[in-house]
Amino acid sequence: MRVVVVGAGVYGAAVAAALARQGATVTVVDAGAPGAGTSGASFSWVNSRDKRPSVYHDLNVAGMAAHRRLADEVPLSGWYHGGGALTWGDGVSERVEALRESGYAAELLTRAEAVELEPGLDPDRLPGDGIGFFPDEGWVEPVRLVGHLLSRDVEVVAGDAVTGLEVGGDAVRGVRLASGTHLSADAVVNCAGPRAGEVAAMAGLALPMRNLPCVLVYTSPVAVPLARVVHAPDVHFRPEGDGRVLLHSGEIDRTEQVEGLLRDAASYYPGMRAARVESVRRGERPIPGDGLPVLGRVTGLRGYFFAVSHSGVTLCLHAGELVADEVLGKDRDDALAAFRFERFER
Ligand SMILES: Cc1cc2nc3c(=O)[nH]c(=O)nc-3n(C[C@H](O)[C@H](O)[C@H](O)COP(=O)(O)OP(=O)(O)OC[C@H]3O[C@@H](n4cnc5c(N)ncnc54)[C@H](O)[C@@H]3O)c2cc1C
């Protein structure tokens, strides 16, 4: 079976790797460089903390497990970082309680216990107790993950955009590229992230997207012992390699007050007073119209598949495997029913 995957972000790479593992001949085409789209500018926290409805929560929980599995299987899989995540503020105790009841690993810590995990935090900025800790959460270096997934048995065409879809009867036959190249295929998987709507339109499919622009702030290397994802009420932190810290907040996408965000960050981690803003990256969250993933086959166009969502870093390995199975003719209706493209056509 010949499959063309459009897009070499985390989704395209995960779908391609799962297909190649099962013997398909796979070409991944990316308009730019692999991992250089949204996946290269993501907070990439692996979690299912606030995912609703329950079918979406379950998909994310399975995504978390898939990351831990792959990291266990691959020696020196340096892209995956466990260590859990910490948070505090309004509603945390209730959320911990609800998550525990659903079987999600969640605990409430005292200030002393939290500072033991994160000794760089200023204890005076923490409540005495009620600090949420989620031991199974983690974060990923998405570009390293893409590199691993594309390293075996997958042909990658970079720097050439898919500009058209070739259809014969009611079935996909191949794609055309900006360079003029034609690639024939038995199946095409749309993994174009924020551009999925435009790529779907080439197939005559109307996929509504409500992408959101966002801003990530990368500090200079700084000697703070940040070891995990931390969500303070107004700043989110995670390590970013070589001592850099990645900062984000609910507000920053709108305000772009990057120096203010760094000041807020240093009020929690005093060691960060020595940091400066080294770079700012702008990304675009790929969000299908109703906020839920679009996964799997399209009824009415044989050989056309989607793998598009927000939270794609968490979901890519598990959802990518489900989509690949379906491409190869294994019915995954049970797992993908809630995420079909056809819900937008009703
Ligand atoms: C600021 C921010 C924070 C986030 N935080 C999290 C988080 O904490 N946890 C989480 O799980 N998720 C998070 N996400 C979401 C997650 O990053 C995305 O869901 C995921 O990266 C999407 O991956 P993708 O492969 O679908 O898209 P992309 O990585 O964008 O890949 C799509 C690729 O398709 C290519 N392409 C587009 N059009 C064409 C074409 N016509 N021909 C060929 N190639 C084409 C692009 O060049 C691109 O490389 C965040 C996103 C952002 C922006």
From TrEMBL:
List, for all copies, the residue spans of the domain called FAD dependent oxidoreductase: 2-325
Q: Report the Pfam families cross-referenced here.
A: DAO
Q: Which GO terms describe its molecular function?
A: oxidoreductase activity
UniProt keyword annotations, A-Z:
Oxidoreductase
Superkingdom in the source lineage? Bacteria
User: Could you tell me what this protein is called?
Assistant: Glycine/D-amino acid oxidase
Task: Write down any Gene Ontology CC term.
Answer: cytoplasm
